[in-house]
Amino acid sequence: MQAEALRNLFGFYKGTKFETMLILTGVTRMRSRVAQLKLCFFNKLKTFDTLYLSGLIRQQNKILGLRTDIQKIFSEWRGCPQFSTLASHDSLNTVEYNISKFNSVVKSTFETCDTHVCLEKLRQSAHRASGGTGQAAKVLDFTFSSVRPRLSAILRATLANRREATLLRNTISGCDFLTPFNHSNKPDCRLCRGKNAEWCHLLCECPKRLSQKVTMTTNIEASLNELIRTTDSEVTKRVSHNSLALMKKLLDSGDNKNLTRYFFGICCSDRNQNQSFLLHIPVLEVVLKVTAGAIRGTQDAWLEALLKEHGIDPNQPS
Questions:
Q1: 169-208 pLDDT, tens digit each
Q2: What is the predicted pLDDT for the residue at 269?
């Protein structure tokens, strides 16, 4: 139910990994939220000093299996390193009388643990050498340093065209129109008949769309220069200059792989000139707007080629 709600709200394809949707939207799993509430309630019961309530919580059948639930929660989460702060609270003798403080610690701990679990599953998916499909590679590049749930900068960036925003979101999530159900099963390029149509090929290398890379980099350069000219923020100016310098470096070196990552906001320069993901929203929006438009143009060309393969003239009135 939670996965279906996230798909409907954000437009993710059906094949998108549940953990991808959680990590991008900054939402924790319902099972961790329920576990958090049970543990908080269990601690609150232990703070009551009356002999009647004290006797109740020591009799499992009198509290409808709450102690059994607590034991299951600790069995499930104890393996997470971040859970060590709560390690002894399954005991009836460990009580935190400052309820507000304890509830805050429990909330923070479960959110941190849940993020850790999601990232571990994304790593398994992203690394093909470990048996993964590579589906979560772009998402992991952008979120690998996450500690707590938060709305991803990718979703905070505003794109005027809803269709382009949805296409971009699904491409980054590894569930694009090319491989909506099986990321490891890459189709041949419908435009040039090349093998394995990756986004590096489609945006930078396809002989049928060679002008696309030039168009994208030219548009990004013009938009960033305009942003530098019009903004009053020194941070925005500095990040824009760094982004322009990196794009020029990637172009001059012919590094199409990292240039493609740059187009998706996951190959940018930090203050030490090391590669990092782009979090500064004004600059990220400039890059992603150009990329989203290119993805839409690629999809249109792809569908047109597909129709022609089946003997249908896309320009013929129906």
A1: 999 998 888 877 677 778 889 999 888 788 999 999 999 9
A2: 55
CA neighbor of 295 nearest in space, from 185, 166, 181, 186:
166
Are residues 162 and 301 located together in one domain of the fold?
Answer: yes
The Cα–Cα gap between 113 and 130 comes to 23
**Does 129 score more than 70 pLDDT?**
no
DSSP symbols for 224-272: HHHHHHH---HHHHHHHHHHHHHHHHHHHHT-HHHHHHHHTT-SEE-TT
Q: Is 98 exposed, middle or buried (0-12, 13-18, 19+ CB in 10 A)?
A: exposed
Q: Which domain holds residue 80?
A: 2-143
Where do we find the tokens 């799993």? 29
Gap between the Cα atoms of 283 and 286, Å rounded: 5
Tell me which residue of 30, 58, 38 sits closest to 103, measured CA to CA.
Answer: 38
Section 212-229 average pLDDT: 96
Q: Is residue 26 part of a domain?
A: yes
Q: Provide the whole-model pTM.
A: 0.84
Looking at the fold, whether 120 and 179 belong to one and the same domain comes out as no
Q: How far is CA 292 from CA 33, 169, 203, 281, 287, in A?
A: 34, 9, 11, 15, 9
Residue closest to 191 by CA, chosen among 172, 211, 174, 173: 211
Burial of 108 (0-12, 13-18, 19+ CB in 10 A): middle
Q: How far is CA 218 from CA 207, 225, 258, 278, 288, in A?
A: 19, 11, 17, 19, 14
**What's the rounded Cα separation, in Å, for the pair 114 and 28?**
6
